[in-house]
Fold 6,7-dimethyl-8-ribityllumazine synthase.
Amino acid sequence: MSGVGAPALSVDGSGMRIVVVAASWHTTVMEGLLGGALRALAAAGVADPQVVRVPGSFELPVAAMKAASAGADAVVALGVVIRGGTPHFDYVCQAATSGLTEVALQTRVPVGFGVLTCDDEAQALARAGLPGSTEDKGAQAAEAAIATVLALREL
Ligand code: DLZ
């Protein structure tokens, strides 16, 4: 999937309670995603976002569900899954993707999807929002979460 075509979102998240749930595998890339998300939230005027770490991307949906059910206006989910030599990759990606979708639909709380699903570490680093990266998927997920809160308020 190409990052070309991503919208330039300018969002105002002031007054929003945002929870960032972040997995812990692939430390360098994860810190890049988390840094990008927090920079984007600060730029959008979000005060004191809560950050909760979970072990792996498989655990993101249950943490997102708890946050969404406990009054968050939006959740930003961050993780990095890198393909290995077994089908494990597919199961973790599927669980994270469908689980986070279910959280958003069941709770009607937007979930920004910042889970990288990559063939190798180079692909992940390119999307991590680090110096030298070409994309900042953590920031994009945070901006998308805020933008969706604002969109739902119009309905
Ligand atoms: C087990 C596992 C593997 C092999 N790879 C990753 C990965 O690339 N990224 C990630 O976020 N988590 C991985 N995990 C851990 C699972 O997400 C989960 O934490 C464990 O299976 C324990 O439930």
Notes: The longest helix spans residues 88-107.
